[in-house]
């Protein structure tokens, strides 16, 4: 865990890094110990943009696909309502979990690159867009 914005979030403004830290705190690409996540949560609440393993890289990849921190959180919130059993491509199947850690779910830009366009430009509801992406990935 690093508190230095310049080192931890290269290419991100302080405000943008804080927004991404908030999003990734709840939807981390890697598992983290609960105690570490609690400390990170306190820092983010104070306005300090912390970074966990792969957070800046994940945010950079997501941003390149058209995601904002709000869209990123929306995607992962919507995925909670979609049954992973229905889609072999559901990210729940690639979730990383260890004992005494809060699980992490890797962001897959190759899977989700169309989702922001479907939601923002094509007018799909976030859940519908996620199901379409998962269905298309499943049929490949």
Using brief descriptors, characterize the structure shown:
140 residues; mainly alpha; two-stranded antiparallel sheet; 3% strand; disordered N terminus
Shape: globular
Question: What is the terminal separation in angstroms?
Answer: 38 Å
| Total domain count | 1
Helix-and-strand structural type? mainly alpha
Mean pLDDT: 92
Count of helical segments? 8
Number of strands: 2
Structure description:
The chain is globular and about 40 Å long. It has one domain. It has about 140 residues and is mostly helical. The chain has helices at about 5-10, 15-25, 35-45, 55-65, 70-80, 110, 115-120, 125-140, and strands spanning about 30-35, 100. It is built from 8 helices and 2 strands. The protein has a two-stranded antiparallel sheet. α2 (about 15-25) runs antiparallel to α3 (about 35-45) and α2 (about 15-25) runs parallel beside α5 (about 70-80).
List the helices and strands and how they pair.
Elements (H helix, E strand, L loop, with lengths): L4 H4 L5 H13 L5 E2 H12 L9 H10 L4 H11 L21 E2 L6 H4 L2 H6 L5 H14 L1
Antiparallel strand pairs: 1-2
Helix pairs in contact: 2-3, 2-5
